[in-house]
Amino acid sequence: MLDEFYSVRVNRVSPEFPIPILHLGQHTPFCTMPGGAANIVTQMQNFNVRPQYFGLIDERCKGVIDQEFSVWMLPNGHVPLKRRYFSGDFPLCRIDVEEPDYGVPEHIEAHRLGLLSKFSFSSEDVVVLSDYGKGTFSDEFAKNFIDMAHAKEKFPITIVDPKHGPLCKWKGCSIFKPNAQEAVDLTGEKDVQKQIEVIMREVECQAVLITQGSEGVIGNVMGRPFEYKPHRSVKGHPLGYSGAGDCFVAFLAMAMAHTMDVVHAAEIAVEAAAVYVQNPGNYGITEHELVGRLDEVEAKLRMPPKERNYRLVFTNGCFDIIHSGHLATLRRAKAFGDKLVVAVNSDQSVKRLKGETRPIVDCEERMRMLAGLECVDFVVTFDEDTPYNIIQEIKPDVLIKGADWAGNIVGSDIVSEVHALPLIEGLSTSKIIDKIKKEPVSPWEHAQNEYERNTQMIPVNIDIQGILALPGIADQIRGTESEADLLNMPSMIPMTSLPSCIHISTCPSIEVPSSEDAICEPYIFQDKRTEFPGFGIS
Q1: Hey, which end of the chain has fewer CB within 10 Å, N or C?
Q2: Please, are residues 276 and 267 in contact by the beta-carbon 8 Å criterion?
Q3: For residue range 132-146, what is the model confidence (pLDDT) as tens digits?
């Protein structure tokens, strides 16, 4: 099927009926996207799988559904059209243009057999049977597909996305995935656990997954129930809800094709559907968007997709110490399009441009700082002195640089729309670094620097057990802090030439017996009276 989207104007209510009057200049959709099973294929296009579409199409599908797929052309029939009318982002009307059995009921069986003759798969494949109740899947046709799968020595995973019953026509499939309303209609039960029981009994499948819209999925795998809710709630786009079930099935199938178990595959599918509903139209979601569901910063550290349905803005720089001038420029740059990609000079590139003492912050940290900004959507790096090559690779719609580059903006011969933005006077990383170098050192910092400069670690050569064995010593200090001090004495201690930082003691808390052998070597204790706590003086 095809999904068409129309833009209309509405400024009054009809005097004949209490309905809005839709003003349509030309009856031409601003967007036509593949729907149904073809939308499942669309959702796979940005990932490392090789989907193959088997379906019935007509002349109107050319240019929308890839003709390289194994399709069967309807010479006289018509695929269903779903026409949606919007005023801005506000949905006003949907018109379904369709006839039973594609308008050719007398020929539909021949078309089914023609499609079946093109169908082939291996045991390693995952097969999705997407039934929208438009005429492709008769009871016999559905049974033939399942039988073909079972005829394999190791039959492939078969996922059924049903619309209508009876349940028995899908008997023997691997996974049965209705939505919440379909589960009610197919089983006659209101309770979701009873729905699962009925489906598993009638279909004899290994798993049942019942999608719950924004509430995730409830399922059962080989008798083990589970439930998964989205990682976080989302606000869907008015144009984004059509086809969310297709997206779920697409990612369920892809995850299982990569040998994931059903539960984890369903979790990924829920998160993918949560991304899908935020975008207008049936556009295929990207790796960047899916990873962003769990880690927004990590998701931004990648190249933008080559196929885009938005205006991409590009800017670049070292961004060594990020300041308010950077933030202002990035926000203004984002306003020129829908998404912003920032290219960051690598450490070696910065060193060549700024000198051996730069960068202050390494490339990975600079990229993560930028990725944490709401106005930034992608962060990439380049090792050359200029971003010319990466601009050529990304091919953005808009190129932004600061006014100090006006007239000499790298990449202006590649990108048609170029802007030089004014800078905030007095703000630059170099000036910040110069200011730090000129700042007077506080007394505390001076003392700390002096201590570190004049301190070295020396070994402690004291026979602790010998001291404890001296006549009378053990009895005096057993169980006291002095015993703990001796037992916990470090093997290395800091020694400084600054006399105010340490205190030399001959164990003042121990009464040494008057014996020639009772000699206590000097021991350096922590000086709790020092003016410099926290230096690690022991």
Answers
A1: C
A2: no
A3: 888 888 888 888 888
Measured CA angle at 225 (ends 287, 129), to 5 deg: 55
Same domain? 110 vs 172: yes
Q: Please list, in sequence order, all residues whose beta carbon lies within 8 angstroms of the beta carbon of residue 454, skipping any fewer than 6 positions away.
A: 496, 497, 498
Residue 532 lies in a domain: no
List helix spans (H) across 221-345: 244-257, 262-276, 287-291, 296-300, 324-334
Secondary structure (H, E, C), 459-488: ECCCCHHHHHCCCCHHHHHCCCHHHHHHHC
User: Cα 38 to the chain's mean position, in Å?
Assistant: 24
**Do 329 and 284 have their domain in common?**
no
Residue for token digits 């203004």? Answer: 332
pLDDT confidence band for 58 (50 / 70 / 90): confident
State whether 67 and 189 are in the same domain: yes
Q: How far apart are CA 415 and CA 412, in angstroms?
A: 5
| DSSP per-residue letters across 302-336 | SPPPSS-SS-EEEEEE--SS--HHHHHHHHHHHTT
pLDDT, tens only, 263-273: 999 999 999 99
Using only the alpha carbons of the chain, give its radius of gyration.
36
Q: Which residue has the tokens 């960051």?
A: 344
For residues 425 and 491, membership in a common domain is answered with no
Written as six digits, the tokens of 235 are 């606000």
- On whether both 347 and 330 belong to a single domain, the answer is yes
The mean predicted confidence, pLDDT, of the chain is 83
Place of tokens 């121990």: 510
Which of 294, 312, 339 terminates a domain? The answer is: 294
Quote the Cα angle for 322-328-333, to 5°.
110
Does residue 493 contact residue 458 with C-beta atoms inside 8 Å?
yes
Whether 377 maps to a domain, the answer reads yes
Residue with tokens 């940005």: 46
β-partners of residue 382 are 345
pLDDT tens-digit map of 344-379: 999 999 999 989 988 999 999 999 999 999 999 999
- 340 and 424 inside one domain: yes
The one-letter amino acid at 233: S
Q: Kindly state whether residue 535 falls inside one of the protein's structural domains.
A: no
- Measured distance between the N- and C-terminal CA atoms of the chain, rounded to whole angstroms: 78
Total domains in the fold of the chain: 3
Is the domain of 80 the same as that of 55? yes
Expressed as residue numbers, the domain containing 470 is: 443-525
Is residue 225 located within the same domain as residue 289?
A: yes
pLDDT tens track for 145-175: 888 877 776 778 999 999 888 999 999 999 9
What sign results for the dihedral spanned by CA atoms 58, 48, 244, 259?
positive
pLDDT at 529 (0 to 100)? 38
